[in-house]
Amino acid sequence: MKVKKIPQRMCLGCQESHPKKDMVRIVRSPEGEYSVDFTGKKPGRGAYLCHKRECFDQAKKSHGLERSFKSPIDASVYDLLERELFGGGKDEG
Q: Residue 35 is part of which domain span?
Protein backbone atom coordinates (compact mmCIF):
# COMPACT_ATOMS: atom_id res chain seq x y z
CA MET A 1 0.00 0.00 0.00
CA LYS A 2 1.34 3.42 -0.97
CA VAL A 3 1.76 6.02 1.78
CA LYS A 4 0.12 9.34 0.93
CA LYS A 5 2.39 12.37 1.22
CA ILE A 6 1.17 15.01 3.68
CA PRO A 7 1.58 18.53 2.25
CA GLN A 8 3.77 20.79 4.40
CA ARG A 9 3.69 24.58 4.62
CA MET A 10 6.03 27.01 6.35
CA CYS A 11 4.69 29.38 8.99
CA LEU A 12 5.53 33.05 8.38
CA GLY A 13 5.96 33.57 12.12
CA CYS A 14 8.05 30.71 13.50
CA GLN A 15 9.53 29.65 10.13
CA GLU A 16 8.76 25.98 10.88
CA SER A 17 7.09 23.52 8.51
CA HIS A 18 3.81 21.98 9.63
CA PRO A 19 1.10 19.91 7.92
CA LYS A 20 -1.03 22.16 5.72
CA LYS A 21 -4.27 21.15 7.47
CA ASP A 22 -2.90 22.35 10.83
CA MET A 23 -2.25 25.87 9.55
CA VAL A 24 -4.44 28.84 8.71
CA ARG A 25 -4.17 30.49 5.29
CA ILE A 26 -4.13 34.24 4.76
CA VAL A 27 -5.41 35.09 1.26
CA ARG A 28 -5.09 38.10 -1.01
CA SER A 29 -7.94 37.86 -3.50
CA PRO A 30 -7.51 38.87 -7.15
CA GLU A 31 -9.31 42.12 -6.19
CA GLY A 32 -6.62 42.86 -3.57
CA GLU A 33 -8.68 42.10 -0.46
CA TYR A 34 -7.14 40.19 2.45
CA SER A 35 -8.98 37.56 4.48
CA VAL A 36 -8.49 34.44 6.58
CA ASP A 37 -9.19 31.20 4.71
CA PHE A 38 -9.98 28.41 7.16
CA THR A 39 -10.96 26.01 4.34
CA GLY A 40 -7.82 26.49 2.23
CA LYS A 41 -9.91 26.74 -0.93
CA LYS A 42 -10.43 30.48 -1.54
CA PRO A 43 -8.98 31.79 -4.78
CA GLY A 44 -5.94 34.04 -4.61
CA ARG A 45 -2.40 34.09 -3.33
CA GLY A 46 -1.96 32.50 0.08
CA ALA A 47 0.44 32.56 3.00
CA TYR A 48 0.32 30.32 6.04
CA LEU A 49 0.47 30.88 9.80
CA CYS A 50 0.24 28.62 12.85
CA HIS A 51 -2.81 29.04 15.06
CA LYS A 52 -0.63 30.80 17.65
CA ARG A 53 -0.75 34.48 18.51
CA GLU A 54 3.06 34.50 18.84
CA CYS A 55 3.41 33.48 15.19
CA PHE A 56 0.97 36.19 14.07
CA ASP A 57 2.83 38.82 16.11
CA GLN A 58 6.20 37.67 14.75
CA ALA A 59 4.93 37.72 11.14
CA LYS A 60 3.60 41.24 11.71
CA LYS A 61 6.88 42.40 13.29
CA SER A 62 9.09 40.87 10.59
CA HIS A 63 6.80 42.00 7.72
CA GLY A 64 6.39 38.38 6.63
CA LEU A 65 3.05 39.01 4.95
CA GLU A 66 4.46 41.95 2.97
CA ARG A 67 7.29 39.75 1.69
CA SER A 68 4.98 36.88 0.88
CA PHE A 69 2.47 39.02 -1.02
CA LYS A 70 5.15 41.34 -2.46
CA SER A 71 3.15 44.45 -1.54
CA PRO A 72 2.75 46.79 1.44
CA ILE A 73 -0.03 45.93 3.87
CA ASP A 74 -1.94 48.57 5.81
CA ALA A 75 -2.21 48.33 9.62
CA SER A 76 -6.01 48.06 9.31
CA VAL A 77 -5.54 44.80 7.39
CA TYR A 78 -3.52 43.38 10.29
CA ASP A 79 -6.30 44.43 12.69
CA LEU A 80 -8.90 42.72 10.51
CA LEU A 81 -6.83 39.51 10.28
CA GLU A 82 -6.25 39.55 14.04
CA ARG A 83 -10.00 39.83 14.70
CA GLU A 84 -10.76 36.99 12.29
CA LEU A 85 -8.05 34.74 13.73
CA PHE A 86 -8.39 35.41 17.45
CA GLY A 87 -11.80 37.01 17.86
CA GLY A 88 -10.73 40.47 18.98
CA GLY A 89 -7.79 42.72 19.62
CA LYS A 90 -4.98 42.18 22.09
CA ASP A 91 -5.85 42.14 25.77
CA GLU A 92 -4.31 45.23 27.24
CA GLY A 93 -4.22 45.64 31.00
A: 8-86
